[in-house]
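Fold Annotation — chain and its backbone

Encoding — discrete vocabulary of local shapes
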Amino acid sequence: MLNLWRRGKNLSTLFASNALGTVLGQVVVLLTIPMQLHFLGAEQFGLVVLFNSFVAAGALTDLGIGPTVVRYIARTQHHPKALAHVFSTGFTVICLLSLAVGVIGVVVAALYPIISERTELVAGSVSHLMLGLLVVTTIGASMLTGLGLNVIKGLRLYRPFAIAESSLRVSVPVAGTVAASLTKDAGATMFAVCLTFVMAAFILLSWARNLVNAPNLLTTNLRYFRRKMLHFGRWVWVQAIFGFLGAQADRFIVAATMSLTALSAYAVAMGVANAMVAALQAGGGFLLPEASSRLSDKAWLAATYRRFTLVFSGLSALGVCVFLFLMVPVLRIWVGVEMATAVVPILLPLLWTVSSGASSVPGTQIMNAMGYTRFGALLGIANNSVLLVAMLIAGSVFGLTGVLGAKLLAVPIGYVARAVTARHVFDSKRPLLDAIGMIWPTVLGAVVVLPISWKLLT
């Protein structure tokens, strides 16, 4: 009994360490959204949202180097030369990728106004070229920042990792909000975010380099990357790309088919929905290094997959149900009655799609640790391709309502994915029953709670 208590306490500590930064970051984001909306106005705030989406999309050019570094740092922790080489390899690859992204991004930003004959400013004082320069610089800085954080996580220094990630997630939105309040300009807001990432990259890379005792930042020997790290990382990369398409492409669809003002309301709803489950999604990050250190224990891996999938589904569903009772008054206080009225119908279905996403976190982390990156990537391609096509078709025909309806497909798709994973990876004899046993709280919420709450709150 004592050992069980200690094990549970240890897992809780690991979860909390990984989730702390995201929780604080989401709290600060939720506090700063109405401030930025007030200082910038709906159109300029919509541009800042679009800028953040471009940065998130651009960071997908990292070839999956983030999770790859975590895995190989954890595996080479007791081999100093290999450990230092993994760090130098990650830094070199990210620098090369950032340079390529920078050149392509600046060329596209310079040519777009000429080709499209849209020479007017995007919003506020922001030109297309200025937007492109800020996006590519922030992409490079964010990837280097991620490298520093992933080295610390790979070494399983969870408390230092929590401090570093928390500081970053708090400082970025605060810097943007301060700039917005002083200048009332989206360009200055985005510049402040960019500068914060640049400073964070310098600090975290210096820290990470000291931890691994790397004599050099750069290396010309990329054989280890080509033979080992790329083989693992390319499929993680594919997972990330299609995960982004399933979870973030809706913002680009809303911006393209409607307006930056509509994107503002959608971003507010997404901010609330993501905050509801962000702690679970980030907290599950400890499963990758932990599972990497116990690859020979297949029974432990299978039990951990089932247990944590159910926990993540249950906690996210519970959080959504509690929030439903507080949603309308909280939104009215937070962003005002007019914006709250626009946000509520958007938010209700989104809450259950992100709950479905949260339940997928344990499986993704454990499969990556076990080396099932190709399987996970193919599963992600199938799942998110269906979502993307559905959102594009429904969004073009029915607008925002169509996008939301298509996103709800994430719940049945998630059920199928859990069943396939249980059968293929963990040799389940009854995958369909095991899958419903793992995600029944999310399914129950989407089928029963969503229609009731929609009728009462809209």
